Amino acid sequence: QVQLVESGGGLVQTGGSLRLSCAASGRTFSRYVLAWFRQAPGKEREFVAVINWSGGSTYYANSVKGRFTISRDNAKNTVDLQMNSLKPEDTAVYYCAADRRTRVGLSTTEYDYDYWGQGTQVTVSS
């Protein structure tokens, strides 16, 4: 079992930066693919970024590519999301998630993820 707890959300102006962090419990954390998703009011949850077990492979949604960076520290059981050049459309609740299965490639589908955090609010003012 893995428990995920996000932190680092808040209110920021357009063009600003935030760093989200997700702390995980569980001895097998380093084996899992980790991802960030987000859900804006009135919208479905959407994929943001994913990272493989070693941190050597990442993938981003087109909407955040070049602005967001996902990273992980298996020694500390954390996965971070550095968000730069934030836009009002980035406003959402951000969730970290863990995929415990071995797959070909990195999943961007929320239904493939087994463990979820409670979410952290990010609000970008215009």
What features would you describe in this structure?
- This protein is mainly beta and 126 residues long.
- Helix content is 0%, strand content 47%.
- The protein is built from no helices and 11 strands.
- The chain has strands at 4-7, 10-13, 18-24, 33-39, 46-51, 58-60, 68-73, 78-83, 92-99, 115-116, 120-125.
- Strands 2, 4, 5, 6, 9, 10 and 11 form a 7-stranded mixed sheet that branches. Strands 1-3-8-7 form a 4-stranded antiparallel sheet, with no helix packed on it.
- Strand 7 and strand 8 form a beta hairpin.
- The chain is globular.
- The mean pLDDT is 95.
What's the short story on this structure?
The protein has 126 residues and is mainly beta.
Helical fraction equals under 10%
Please state the average pLDDT score. 95
Instruction: Categorize the overall geometry.
Output: globular
Provide the structure class: mainly beta
Beta-strand percent range: over 45%
Largest sheet: 7 strands, mixed
H and E order: EEEEEEEEEEE
Spatial gap, N to C terminus = 40 Å
Keywords:
47% strand; 7-stranded mixed beta sheet; 0% helix; 126 residues; mainly beta
Topology at a glance:
Elements: E1 4-7, E2 10-13, E3 18-24, E4 33-39, E5 46-51, E6 58-60, E7 68-73, E8 78-83, E9 92-99, E10 115-116, E11 120-125
Parallel strand pairs: 2-11
Antiparallel strand pairs: 1-3, 3-8, 4-5, 4-9, 5-6, 7-8, 9-10, 9-11
